Amino acid sequence: MKPGDLLPPGEYPAPKHWTATASGGALDLDDPRPEQIRLTDVATGLAHVCRWNGQTPLGQRISVAEHSVLVARLAIASLAALPTDDPRPVVQACLLHDAHEAYPPGDVAGPVKAYLRARGDHVLAELEAAVQRAIELRFGVVYSAAVAAAVKQHDLESRWLERAQLLLPCERGWGEGLPRPRDPHPRIECWEPERAAETWLEWCHDWGIR
After folding, report:
1. CA-to-CA separations, 208 to 53, 96, 141, 204, in angstroms, rounded
2. Beta bridge partners of 28
3. Which phi-psi region, left, alpha or beta, contains residue 32 (left: φ > 0; alpha: ψ -120 to 50)?
4. Euclidean distance between the first and final Cα of the chain, in Å?
5. What is the pLDDT of residues 185-209, one digit of tens each?
6. pTM (2 decimals)?
7. Which residues pair with 27 in a beta bridge?
8. Are 36 and 27 within 8 A, CB to CB?
9. Are 72 and 186 in contact (CB under 8 A)?
């Protein structure tokens, strides 16, 4: 079969919640499994998904792929503060911390997640956790408490950078308490999707994610 070919009637699998991927694979949403995860699919999805719900000035788009590399760069810049002599687990975790956003529903903004939690709706959180778990199993990434804390710190630092470099001041104000990364601050370049995917993949390969 070639891409785009249809199966004959009656040969489709039983109806189930699943999504097609860029490489021609499929991910079961009811039961995402490690063998369904392909690194190139993750790269493609993260490169196409915009941070901040796309609510940045035109020309100031940052993808989740570029954001993930930014978080990894901030971790490397803080080598002395990393919780282990081997930076690999932290950098790998930084590169993959938002990997579930490569698949539907993508990067759901924090206020939306808070809105759903306040109404007792945990379906989104459960789906994100299941997909993220499949990804971590696929690539052997282990989140110890120390690694998780380091990723959280650098993720918040990246949010400070993105707010400072990309976003216009908000009339209601927010983010003043975000941790500021150490100088010098890396510049956000707003990569086009192809470069974002290629760069994220290069970082993954360099740090042992294959």
Report:
1. 30, 12, 10, 6
2. 18
3. beta
4. 27
5. 999 999 999 999 999 999 999 999 9
6. 0.90
7. 19
8. yes
9. no
